[in-house]
Design goal:
Number of domains: 4
CATH class of the largest domain: Mainly Alpha
Radius of gyration: 29 Å
Distance between the termini: 51 Å
CATH topology of the largest domain: Hypothetical protein af1432
Number of strands: 11
């Protein structure tokens, strides 16, 4: 249902900027995505104004503005204190020349005709302008029938589709992202043009592709967006590794192919409103399976796919220029998504060792990923009893020492007590002490740890290294014994 226009829906700061232009004898129109979302009754994150005033005239009217581009866009400061309206972008009507780099116009020509400006835009639903008058709102200018497409819930380019994508290849991604975000279909001519011009995406910077992909991932319909990328032959230029799971069957414990399972896991995370980190991990958690698959049919295996998948995840997210934190956090979730827990088979010490390995701060996201993994596998329940019991065990031991910084003794203490200089020996002693405390938190007392450090110091560095190695190799219950049997049962490792 298309919404009527209400002046009250437009921030005062935006109207003030528009009216200042009008009072100085210029035209002012709201344009682009904000008009589209006004009509749809959606929340608006960016307000754009287009005008027949040149950038120089805009700067005269608003001296405290930012103009650092060649495209006629002036950032007018409003001092609103609101991130959405603190700067309102005002752009002069313009026409554009060729796009040699498939992203930016070689030439921009300012014009006095609004229709010229609208004709250069990407999709019809973004090519509408709403006039602002000194008394309120005027006419909606819709020369490309954007309202018709909004009503039909269709994405269609302005003019010839191939030309629009030749001009700016990022529109290939933007079209999919908007269709996903708005739950629109892409009309047939536009689809065919995207399929034909898909390869142009290689000319676009990875940062720009990442921005559109990230926006798509943060929509409720993110999984549908990934499928649409594949249907339009764009996924190979964004996440080719994900495509390796197409048609790759799994064993008797899975009813979907690897690709389908990953997408379904993402679908759950997106519909639950989970963070970008969890959504990316859900999509990529089994990305290592195609490379590790051995055999066919119900008894095929995917040994070490979590380890391989974590390394692939780092390579994928680095290529797409995600932040170091996102890369580290997502890869960590992928690496440990196979954690094992069975009621009555894992002790408090085992849970402490698990927390030591994955970090207590990771547990909430790891649980969310496990939920997505389960639902993506076709099981009806996201949080079974054993997972609830696991959370109980986490709560039970969360105050126990699970990391070196929680010991009642630190490296400086060890060096002072034992008259040691910084070196590997100090680290070996601390690691051994931590393993002993993980077994029994009651040992985490300064007196005991200092006494034990003195005993360990009698060993030479080589012997300490061996003791530390054996302590570390004392198989955590999450990775040994009964877990290994469970991994064999489920054909994973």
């Amino acid at each position: 249902m298309l919404q009527p226009f209400h002046k009250e829906a437009i921030p005062v700061e935006v109207l003030v900027v528009a009216r200042e232009l009008i009072l100085k004898g210029h035209q002012a129109y709201l344009v682009g995505g904000c008009v589209r979302d006004l009509i749809l009754g959606r929340s608006i994150k960016d307000w754009d104004i287009t005008t027949n005033a040149t950038p120089e005239k805009i700067l005269e009217i608003f001296p405290d503005s930012v103009y650092e581009n060649e495209f006629g866009t002036v950032g007018v400061k409003t001092d609103s204190g609101n991130a959405i309206t603190e700067i309102v972008e005002v752009t002069t009507f313009r026409k554009e020349g060729r796009y040699t780099d498939k992203r930016h116009p070689d030439e921009v020509v300012f014009t006095t005709a609004l229709e010229d400006d609208l004709s250069r835009r990407d999709f019809t639903v973004n090519a509408m302008a709403l006039e602002v008058t000194k008394d309120g709102l005027g006419e909606l200018v819709d020369v490309f029938e954007g309202q018709v497409d909004l009503t039909a819930r269709v994405m269609r380019t302005v003019g010839k589709a191939e030309d629009r994508f030749e001009e700016d290849a990022l529109r290939l991604m933007r079209g999919v992202r908007l269709a996903t975000e708005l739950d629109f279909q892409i009309d047939m001519e536009t689809r065919r043009a995207i399929e034909k011009k898909a390869g142009l995406l290689e000319m676009i910077s990875k940062e720009r592709i990442r921005d559109e992909f990230q926006k798509m991932m943060m929509t409720e319909r993110a999984a549908a967006g990934v499928i649409l990328l594949e249907e339009l032959d764009l996924l190979r230029y964004v996440l080719p590794e994900l495509r390796e799971g197409l048609g790759v069957g799994q064993n008797k414990h899975h009813i979907y192919t690897v690709f389908e399972h990953n997408v379904r896991a993402l679908d759950y995370s997106a519909r639950e409103g989970y963070s970008l980190t969890v959504r990316l991990a859900s999509l990529l958690h089994d990305v290592g399976k195609p490379k590790t698959k051995r055999g066919e049919g119900p008894d095929c295996t995917f040994y070490n796919h979590d380890i391989v998948g974590a390394k692939m995840t780092v390579a994928i997210l680095e290529r797409l220029k995600f932040s170091k934190k996102i890369i580290t956090d997502v890869a960590h979730l992928v690496r440990f998504h196979m954690f094992y827990y069975n009621v009555g088979e894992v002790s408090d010490a085992g849970v402490r060792r698990f927390l030591n390995r994955v970090g207590p701060e990771t547990v909430p996201d790891l649980i969310k990923l496990r939920e997505a993994d389960r639902i993506g596998s076709g099981v009806p329940k996201a949080v079974p009893y054993k997972l609830r019991h696991f959370l109980f065990m986490i709560e039970k031991v969360k105050m126990d020492p699970v990391s070196p910084k929680m010991l009642k003794i630190n490296g400086e203490d060890v060096m002072r007590i034992l008259s040691l200089k910084p070196g590997p020996k100090v680290g070996f002693i601390l690691n051994i002490l931590l393993e002993e405390v993980l077994d029994d938190p009651k040992r985490n007392m300064s007196e005991y740890l200092e006494k034990r450090a003195v005993e360990l110091n009698k060993e030479d560095e080589k012997q300490l290294s061996e003791i530390a190695r054996k302590a570390k190799e004392k198989k955590e219950e999450f990775e040994s014994g009964v877990e290994e049997e469970m991994k064999k049962k489920y054909y994973v490792k």
